[in-house]
Structure formats: structure tokens, C-alpha cells
Design a protein that fits this description.
Layout (H helix, E strand, L loop, with lengths): L3 E9 L6 H10 L5 E2 L12 E2 L13 H6 L2 H17 L11 E7 L4 H14 L8 H5 L3 H10 L5 E2 L7 H14 L5 E8 L4 H9 L29 E9 H6 L6 E10 L12 H13 L7 E5 L6 H15 L7 E3 L2 H4 L6 H15 L1 E2 L22 E2 L4 E8 L3 E9 L3
Parallel strand pairs: 4-5, 4-6, 9-10, 9-13
Antiparallel strand pairs: 1-7, 1-8, 2-3, 6-7, 8-14, 11-12, 13-14
Length: about 400
Amino acid sequence: MRRVVVTGMGMVSPVGLNVAESWKNALAGKTGVGKLSRFDATNFTVQIGAEVKNFSVGDAMDAKEANRAPLFLQYAAKSAQEAIRDAGLTSENFNPDRAGACVGVGIGSLDILEENHKALLEKGPRRVSPFLIPHMIANMAAGLVSRLNNLKGPNMCTTTACASGTHAVGEAMLYIQHNMADIMVCGGVESAMSPTSIAGFAVMKALSTNNDHPEEASRPFDLNRDGFVMGEGAGILVLEDLEHAKKRGAKIYAEIVGYGMSGDAYHITSPAPEGEGAQRCMRMALSMGHIPLTEMDYINAHGTSTKLNDFYETRAIKGVFGDNAKAISISSTKGVTGHCLGAAGGIEAVFTVMALKDQMVPPTAGLKTPDPECDLDYTPHEARRRLVRYAMSNSFGFGGTNATVAFKRWDK
């Protein structure tokens, strides 16, 4: 089986406009949560979110195209550009037919639909934009990344709710392992910060209503957590066949060695009891990567800051790792980014790789009062330097869909 490595990364997040800035703020536990600014949320029960600030797509897209493109496509273009430049890929050192894109999107852009539905009702069908469909369908992120970077290999979109980004990374790894591509640009992207989206999640009672203290609202594994905070952004990785990477002299961040996926077959939104589906998912990733339980040193948890997810993820980790669970450093970087939905898995995969590269575990921001039922080492308050040999990232989505990717430290 071909070995697959990470050779480039890019990010747009609520705590930074690139990987370096986002990682610095994640290590510092600096939250990106604040009052919603995209629309007037005065009459909403939820008035907070983790928005991307001061974003500019720059030269990642043609200015005319960017002006009419929804944010999720702009985030995809910008983060992919950073990842490809970081990987040192040029038109001379890879075959476009052997390079592809797999980008996960959960919802995409509801604001485009909202605007055009309003135009339809108020002004008639002729006033609906001809860009409505291509600007809201989820696979356009992968299509755009492919088109802008001349990637003519596999072109794929995973839409599996909050697991979309992680599934995209795992699927991209499989394409390379099975010789369908030498290079895959993969990850997740989302920008669903719209009135309909906020209202929809709010009436489900899924979102935090800590409007008066937004900086404390996203608090995974905390006793007083009251729901997740919606975030947005993109996290993109360049995965590459090891021999291809070596041949062109690429720098290598880490090796991706494991991928797991499972279905709960239980409930539309709630996780299965004891995190049974999550356990099978993690076990699959560990088995594929031939990872000893005693050498898993860091887990970037799904850790949404909701009552059931955090509790059952804790039970799942204990179920998989047994007595070794307490020796693992775990954190949820959603404490700083909020829950970026389809982008979460991409962003968190980048953070997981950075933990391996720098041998640093980011903290779980917002964790002040530990929940007695979430009694593992969730790295509260401060980042921690430690040996990280293997690390994994979990993502679990509505509909009972689960994904895990596992990475190994790269030893030169």
C-alpha cells in the first residue's frame, strides 16, 4: 500500500487568516467568538458566532468572480492557495492528471438562497440570479479548487454534516493509497452564518445562548456548557504519495496512516449510547494505521460543547483506549473556533498535524469547571508541550455519521 504524507496546509478561521496565525491563537486559547455582525440578530435567541474577520480573498481568485462568489467559495480558494504554495507545487513538478481535489461542505451558502428567495417573492422569477445554483451547491468548492489550480484528477465533495471535512481528508488518502492520484488537495469549508441557519439550529436548542459573555460560550467538556457556537472558515491539506513527495524534495509535516468511518444507525441528531458508533470509527482508524494504543498521545476531539456529544465522546475514548485513555492529551479546538460545521474536520486536521510538528497540544479554551462525567485529560487553560507520536482527529455529524483520521509524527 502506498504511504501518504502531508506536504502543505492552508487555513481561514475565526482566529486567523492563515495556518500560522490560527495555530498561534489556538495555542494561546484566544477565542474567535463574538456578537454576530452579518445581520441584525436582536430578535434572535442566539446572537453570537465565531465569524472570520477582516478577510480578503486577495489574488486567490479573479476579482470579478470573487465579487459575486459566496464566502465559502472564497474561503476555499484562499486556503487552497496557501496549502498549494506551502507544498511548493508548481506547474513543473506535478502531473495535473494525477492531482485532484476532495473538499467537504456541510451546508455551503444559505444566504445566497435567502437573498434569491426574497427576490423571487418580491420581484418575480426573472430577478433570481443565474449564479444561484452554482453558488450554493456544495461541490462547487472542490470544483473551484480544481479549476483554479489545474487539478484534473479525482474531483469529489463529501457532504456528511459536521464530519464532511474529515471524510474528505480520509477519502483523499484512500485515492492516493489506491493509486488513483499522486496528490490530493483536501479538507473542509463552510460559511453558513445566515439568519435561517442560526434560527434553525437555535430552535433545535443546539446553540449556546450565552449572549452576554460570548468569549465564554464555547466551552467543551465544561459542566456548564449549553450548546455549540457556530463558526466558519476552511482548512485544507495537500496529501501526497510519499515517493512522489521525496522525488520533488517536498517538506513533510506528518504521515496520515489511519481513517475510520461508521454510522450510528440510531437517531437523527443524538449520538449512540456509550458513543458506540464513535468507538467503531476510532478503532477502524487505529487498525488501519497499526497504531499501538499506548502510543496515541493526542486526540483533537469533536468536542462540540453540547451535553450529549461531550459525554458520549468521553465514553467512546474510554471504551477504545481503556486504561490508556487517561494518558492521552485531548482537546477541543472548538473552544476557540466555534463549531465550523463542514469546515471543522479540515481545520482540526490541520491543528492535529501542527500538534505533531511542534510537539504541542493546544488547550480546550473555555473549560473552567470540568464536568465530572468528562473526566479525561482535556488540556484546560494552557497549551502543553509533550511527546506526540500519533494523533487523531474525530468528527461526528447529524444523521449518525462518524469519521476519524490518524496521523503519525514524521521522523526525518
